[in-house]
Amino acid sequence: MEKVKIIFVGLGGRGYGLLKDVCQMEDVEIVALCDLLPDRVERALKLVQEQKGNTPVTSADYKELFATVKADAVITPSAWQAHAPICIDAMKAGMYAATEVGGATSIEQCWELVRTSRETGMPCMMLENCCYGEFEMAVFNLVRKGFFGELVHAEGGYRHDLRAEVALGHERHHYRLDNYKRRNGDVYPTHALGPIAKTLDINRGNRMVSLVSIASKARGVNRWILDNRGEEFENAREPFALGDVVTTIITCANGETITLTHDTTLPRPYSRNYVIQGTKGIASEDANFSISIEGLTPQNDSWDPNEWRPMKEYYETHGHPLWKAYRSAGVKSGHGGMDYLVLRAFIEAVRDKTDTPIDVYDTAAWMAITPLSEDSVACGGKPVAIPDFTEGRWLTPRPVVRGKYCLDEVCEEAFEGITEL
Ligand SMILES: NC(=O)c1ccc[n+]([C@@H]2O[C@H](COP(=O)([O-])OP(=O)(O)OC[C@H]3O[C@@H](n4cnc5c(N)ncnc54)[C@H](O)[C@@H]3O)[C@@H](O)[C@H]2O)c1
Q1: Mean pLDDT of 61-69
Q2: Which architecture, in CATH terms, is 4-101?
Q3: Residue ranges lining ligand 1, Cβ < 6 Å
Q4: First-to-final CA distance of the chain
């Protein structure tokens, strides 16, 4: 069996976790490892040697590796500002590129991703694992079966208490601190936007047209530092640019609205508050992962709009076939199993030499929300136009790569006789 040869760039907490997952895959060979920090490279090297039995080439300079190591693909769980340049250089070196999630630093960078992919013919995929979440995929399946009627509105966000991670960023070598000090906008929009965009057919018959973003004041990290580290700790009283809660409203060409919330510096439970709403019903993560859909969720023979039904009651009958197959094959670890799915989606596209289920247009459009929302916040919530990175291709049907990991359609035929993923 020809193995898919991969270079990893970025071996922090996330990179090491993904590397562990990939080391379990028999059809993958890790040929090179890169990080700016030597101890992270060493730790990853040891893992690959133990798990895979080979010794990858290592370097702190990814360009050197791209020029000298023969590989099929690059996976980069590096810092947000490094993702686009690394993916662009990977494609120029003739490799598939996969970036971890995170916003872009400029719109030009997003255009360059698209142009490079078109010029080189190399796909670029954002590894947005939440597109493969069980709840999100079940909602997608119900939407495609028509249960929601016509879609009207969606919501989602990244709501996660990261005060310690931000405040201790320098001692942990974490990229978030510098971003939070200097940028004000939705710096992490894609966990919710990814599955919403796929559900609303963004870039395939629909597109995001404009947005407005408003930021609250920033108090959470300063308060955390004062309470937990004291007056003398760095940034105890220096202001942070990033508002504690940033709210963005996107309008789409087909008339839907999307509300995104970035909320990571106040005490709160984790939530991506995923909501999909149509003319026949609603799904909501914050209602305990539930749905209320006319016709599908009747109570005592009649549908009551005040009643939620847990989505898990419907997984057997209406769950996405990928998750049904995954459950019977055995769900793997990593954010409830979705990390494995997004990695397999990428690796199988590389193996089969097809486009990726999240393509370069999706990647560019989703990453672009960050600099656009910064512009809008800076102008007091002014509407900002969202570029059409497809340059009109969204208007006419584009071929979909059908298969198990497809995120544009539900490909039932791909699961016939499937016993393992
Ligand atoms: N999808 C998810 O669920 C999920 C979860 C956690 C993190 N992430 C994403 O993964 C990425 C990494 O997160 P993390 O928490 O591991 O961050 P981290 O800061 O701990 O690790 C990033 C690593 O990348 C390295 N790096 C940065 N620029 C580089 C360059 N130019 N060349 C080589 N190495 C470089 C850094 O030295 C660091 O070791 C981020 O984009 C984050 O948003 C995604």
Answers
A1: 98
A2: 3-Layer(aba) Sandwich (3.40)
A3: 9-15, 34-37, 40, 62, 77-80, 82, 100-102, 129, 173-175, 335
A4: 17
